[in-house]
Amino acid sequence: MNASDQKRLLREMIFYRRFEERSFEAYMERKIGGFLHLYSGQEAVATGVLEMARCGHDYVITGYRDHIHAIKAGAPAREVMAELYGKETGSSRGRGGSMHIFDPTVHFMGGYALVGQPFPLAAGLALACKHKGTDQIAICFLGDGANNQGTFHETMNMASVWKLPVLFVCENNLYAIGTRIDRSTAVTDQYKRVVAYDIPSSQHDGQDIDVVMAAATDAIAHVRSGRGPYFIEFMTYRQRGHSMSDSNAYRSKEEERLWMERDPLKIYGERLKKAKILTEKDIAAMEKSVLEEIENDIVRFAEESPEPRVEDLNKYCLDDQPDPRWIGPLGQGEQHG
Amino acid sequence: MAEIAYWEAIRRAHDEELAHDRMVIAMGEDIGVAGGTYKATSGLYQKYGAERIIDTPISENSYTGIGIGASMAGMRPIIEIMSINFALLALDTLINAAAKIRYMSGGRASCPIVMRTPGGTAHQLAAQHSARLARMFMSTPGLRVVTPRGPLDAYGMLKSAVRCNDPVIIIEHESMYNMRGEVPDEETFRPLEGAEIVRAGTDVTLIGYNYSVHLCLAAADKLAAMGVSAEVLDLRALRPIDRDTIRRSVEKTHKVVIAEEDEAAVGVGSEIISVIIEECFFALDAQPVRVHAADVPVPYNRQLEKAAIPNADDVLAAALKVLGRV
Hints:
Chain A is 44% helix and 11% strand. Chain A has 337 residues and is an alpha/beta fold. Chain A has a single domain (3-307), classed as Rossmann fold (3-Layer(aba) Sandwich), CATH 3.40.50. In chain A, the strands form 2 sheets. In chain A, strands 2-1-3-4-8-7 form a 6-stranded parallel β-sheet, sandwiched between helices. Chain A has a two-stranded antiparallel ribbon with strand order 5-6. In chain A, helix 2 packs across helix 8 (209-224). In chain B, 39% of the residues lie in helices and 20% in strands. Chain B is built from 12 helices and 14 strands.
């Protein structure tokens, strides 16, 4: 990876952090409603894995902590912010909100609130890739908590039996909402759990984007080669609560401090400084330009965009332009006894 | 025009749609090598192969989810659930995902799946194999729900469901797979919307869907012998409901019986009566009467099972009641 790509990656991760922090501010101002799950602290995972994927070609799907996966997959950041604002220009036209970002034009197939539901959907996307005979793959990002759903076991089994081209990325942030993994899960190393389904797997540091990219390269190559699914686990940590109403009372300050030291932005920034690719001053300039972009482009777009029209409430429930040959209604002449 | 069985009609629709579009696949338990519990996919595994006629493990929620995911990427899966009772396991992917994805993506994604599943009480299969559950699906926005009463609709509605861009639930019936009826030799599509007047009449409207249409027809025969002209209306689709056809019939006959095999509470009959009250309350000459199952899990014992499930005589008795003849 050359220096300009390294600089771009650092800027992207800074952008993702500031995007989430800015959405937190908008939430506190009540410009964003509902639930808001922030990705701060886990940036290296989505950024690193999707850097090695072919975004726009491969399919990407995830849970409700989905803003950054969508943006890295290619969804315009201003449309993601507009979605958080519930605007008509949002990724999901204001109908989905934070947890349901969609951009099928770049093959980002959604964020889902039902924990574990994206497992089978991802396998289905992979089934379609295999059926069409393309070299596309499906990438499913979910947390450790999702692995205690039945869909995990059912889907791992079918993905393995049918050799589906799907990469399961487990972002193990140690907590299923407020319950620590060892209190809810018999086997805490998640990569070991898919051994039961004969799926190759591995566990890596999710805070160091270079480690993430190296591991993802191998995993993606395995899946793309037609050898079936791969399960990759990254150890990571969310710096904020599960969502806005979460005080993090279940985590110790000492644990939080240790993980804050392993901040993915800090780790990568220090590395680029040490390699003389960037100076402290360059990083400060990068921070400044990110903040300006978010304020002047992303947030402004969201704030100035129109709300959906109430007259359109019933739109998008079913196909709005159905073919009468399949739908009808039944003409009198067609009725029979 | 040939007379074929209900299961043959479903099989023919599969065969034609699989031949027409390579993106069509079928998935379900025992549908491939074993040929399907009700033979509805027999021989298709041999013709189209394991990649398109997919035998799934017993994992209803996730194989439905796999069908949904595949449909989001351009496939047209026909998902068979062996019994509607087992569809309860798939409610998360079906209702939380398939029914909502188009809406919550602002129309940018869609899930054109077909789910076929038999509901209904067959013969002493007891409580966990005898549910009907049509009322549950008909209450869910984002789905289409159809209930073919015979081979023509079983064939033509499945074909339309595969072509349609919405998730479609087709509720079949365990006791109807061997029922025979005429189906044109040429390719035919039957629309997914619109109720149908199966038998015209002037004195009372008997409303049914799926199996209960046949109870209404049998009752209409008996009523005819008594000099009563009964109109039989097949709802065909439970979502959306064809309000116009119901209103026109009630405005003609002024009396209504609704026959459902399901329990009454929050059911098809309740919904249809609400529609009638909203559309044409003043056309009614008598209170509508519901014919429905007993409010119990379906029992195993033959006599108890018969007592729990409505039959044609129950529809007849209800009709006589609205006619003021009892």
